[in-house]
Write a structure and sequence with these properties.
It is built from seven helices and six strands. By secondary structure, the protein is an alpha+beta fold. The chain has a six-stranded mixed sheet with strand order 1-3-2-6-4-5. Helix 4 crosses helix 7. The protein is elongated, with a radius of gyration of 18 Å. It starts with a strand and ends with a helix. This is (2Fe-2S)-binding protein. It holds the Pfam family Fer2. Keywords: 2Fe-2S, Iron, Iron-sulfur, Metal-binding, Oxidoreductase.
Length: 179
């Protein structure tokens, strides 16, 4: 890893012009020392090699760098690393561990991705919504996706994927209530 850790930093020059952070990323607590100009996306991609979080516009307009910070969607290109101190970050790598998350599966089944560059940010935004409301209206879905741009597939496949997710989660709920 390229990040200096607290416990390995005995040289005062290493700490000069650096910022100490304690941050939980994908369930793991990190104690890090980073440059003050580091953005959260830099920390994730360059140092922790969590490359599922993409960079594209780098000005917060495309959503490809979306992550969850304390459960809220943020553009990691706009968050300075020091602003994430003490926060809980969830990246696309955390969304599925053993199996795909149901919204990821629905994306595959509905052809809601093409190049895939925007997909991690879309999944993060939709996961945030679906964690709060697993039967959102189309208006709510569009509202949650307003910060995410897709230049390849458009949004019809994405909306179909959310509808599939809603139908399948509704069926699972109905089956559980019948048992």
């Amino acid at each position: 890893m390229k990040i200096d850790r607290f416990e390995n930093s005995t040289n005062d020059r290493i700490l000069e012009n650096k910022i100490a952070l304690n941050i939980t990323i994908n369930g793991r607590l990190y104690s890090l020392i980073v440059p003050p100009t580091y953005r959260l996306v830099d920390l994730l991609r360059k140092d922790l090699e969590l490359t599922g979080t993409k960079t594209s516009c780098e000005i917060g307009r495309c959503g490809s760098c979306s992550v969850l910070m304390n459960g809220n969607v943020v553009n990691s290109c706009l968050v300075m690393a020091y602003q994430a101190n003490g926060m809980v970050i969830e990246t696309i790598e955390q969304v599925s561990q053993e199996n795909l998350h149901p919204i990821q599966q629905a994306f595959l089944e509905e052809g809601a991705l093409q190049c895939g560059y925007c997909t991690p940010g879309m999944i993060i935004a939709l996961k945030s919504l679906l964690d709060k409301n697993n039967q959102p209206t189309e208006e709510e879905v569009l509202d949650y996706l307003c910060g995410n741009l897709c230049r390849c597939t458009g949004y019809n496949g994405i909306l179909r994927a959310v509808q599939r997710y809603k139908n399948e989660s509704s069926a699972i709920f109905d089956n559980k209530t019948l048992e």
